[in-house]
Write a structure and sequence with these properties.
487 residues
């Protein structure tokens, strides 16, 4: 069964269970944070030991152990560690349920790791639901009116999206007779060898439903309606994890499913490539336009995240339309998700500290923050600069790779839309920076932050600048991870 290839996931599951049990006996709840971080570190160590080994399948080809999956597993573990560190002040305010909070974070991370490794529609769905159920609970963790309303809305809409996704999987299975991604590819090629795709409208409809179901997970238009309300009502550390981890996991599973199961024949990849191109243009435009109107910084970043889903979908569209894995081989998608994760982590970490002091998420309350908390304001500004796509931040390199690949493969119209929208995004991102540095402070007192939060700020800032100035290391790792998609 090769359980040694599954050790990172086993370690993380064991850590989650251990945290729940220890919560019953320990009085100093800081132990739970330490145990969670140790478990993440051990899981990351085992994942690194598997890097660049020969690709293998485990559990009857339900999961793959390859560089692509390991790349995302390490990214998810890093994001989880950062979220736990910025959550320290938050969980200290909870008289109860601290163990459950850490366990749910770990189970959500476990689900994301399984999503990146899933090579069967069944394992894809199970891992998606493990992540989703964990987030349903985390969003409503505060149990106040806003948190409860957000959780209920997320559950209801998430349930509908899961049903749509499952129906798409059922149609795919019905017309191919396979649930394994490699088997679906073989079946489709055999079918199209004797007839066109139009002879299997059910398969095409199933593909449409898959795009819709996955579109909800990444908050792409028109499946985005849940994101702003859920982001606003959820505890800010949970909003951070939902914004970064869940979105990155969604793209990880989309990459594996669409390139492994529907990459051939070329006519099929062109179809879904054009679908992603249209979704990309709409998501970028609507996300940026609606972000301008927001007065709440969490809602602003929610619409910003919708726009960034659109930017990432440009690379999916480019690869589908080009009929090759050239763009993926150049690391554009994987590089972008790392750059986005670092920028969002930096921005939300600063927001957590500022919002705790101001007791508000309104943008107007950030006025003069550069004088009251210059370090926090600087970090938030750097995160916003990277999200805008300005040098020397990693976001600039990420957008450059995606835009250049799209322009070279006949999607110049989409690049023009994306560039114009990047200019629009600069307005609402830099508006916050201008308010912080040039606005009048609402008070004279500083903004305290814990050592753990300052550590997160330092790590994310270093990452943003490092991959913006010297991106070659990350590009090389991403190319090694994406090599499996060559076809």
């Amino acid at each position: 069964m090769n359980l040694e290839l599954f050790i990172p996931e086993l370690v993380l599951a064991g850590t989650a269970i251990a945290v729940i049990l220890l919560d019953l006996f320990v009085r100093h709840k800081g132990v739970l944070t330490a145990i969670s971080l140790i478990g993440i570190a051990v899981a990351a160590g085992f994942a690194i030991s598997l890097w660049n080994g020969s690709p293998q399948a485990i559990f009857n080809d339900m999961l793959a152990v390859d560089n692509f999956g390991i790349f995302f597993k390490l990214l998810f573990l890093f994001i989880a560690a950062m979220v736990i560190l910025v959550s320290i002040d938050y969980v200290n305010k909870l008289a109860r349920f601290q163990g459950e909070y850490h366990a749910l974070l770990l189970f959500a991370t476990l689900g994301m790791m399984l999503m990146a490794a899933a090579t069967d529609l069944i394992s894809v769905f199970v891992s998606l639901e493990l992540t989703a159920i964990s987030f349903y609970l985390l969003v409503g963790f505060l149990k106040d009116n806003r948190s409860t309303e957000s959780s209920l809305k997320y559950i209801l809409l998430g349930g509908v999206a899961s049903a749509v996704l499952l129906y798409g999987m059922a149609l795919t299975f019905g017309f191919t007779g396979e649930t394994q991604l490699a088997g679906i590819t073989r079946s489709i090629q055999e079918t199209t060898a004797s007839s066109s795709l139009l002879a299997s409208p059910g398969l095409v409809f199933g593909l449409v439903l898959l795009i819709a179901g996955f579109g909800f997970k990444i908050a792409a238009v028109p499946f985005h309606m849940w994101a702003p309300d859920v982001y606003e009502g959820a505890p800010t550390p949970v909003t951070l994890y939902l914004s970064v981890g869940s979105k990155v996991a969604g793209f990880a599973v989309i990459l594996r499913v669409f390139f492994s199961a529907f990459g051939l024949p070329e006519a099929l990849s062109i179809d879904w490539g054009m679908a992603f191109a249209v979704l990309s243009a709409v998501s970028i435009t609507l996300g940026n336009i609606l972000a301008i109107q927001q007065s709440n910084i969490k809602r602003m970043l929610a619409y910003s995240g919708i726009a960034h889903s659109g930017y990432i979908m440009i690379s999916l569209a480019t690869t589908g339309l080009s009929g090759s894995a050239e763009v993926i081989g150049q690391s554009s998608t994987l590089f972008y998700v790392v750059a986005f994760a670092l920028a969002d982590l930096a921005a939300f970490a600063a927001i957590i500290a500022i919002s705790n002091k101001a007791n508000s998420d309104l943008i107007k309350d950030y006025s003069g923050m550069g004088k009251r908390a210059p370090v926090l304001a600087l970090v938030l500004t750097l995160g916003l600069i990277s999200l805008t796509g300005l040098p020397p931040a990693a976001g600039f390199i990420a957008k450059f790779y995606i835009f250049s690949g799209a322009a070279a493969n006949g999607l110049l119209w989409l690049v023009i839309i994306a560039v114009l929208n990047s200019a629009i995004s600069a307005f609402y991102y830099l508006r916050v920076a201008k308010l912080m540095w040039l606005g009048k402070p609402s008070g004279e007192s500083g903004v305290p932050s814990s050592p753990a939060l300052r550590l997160v700020l330092a790590i994310t800032c270093i990452g943003i600048l490092l991959f913006g100035i010297a991106p070659s290391l990350l590009i090389k790792l991403a190319e090694m991870a994406a090599a499996m998609f060559a076809f």
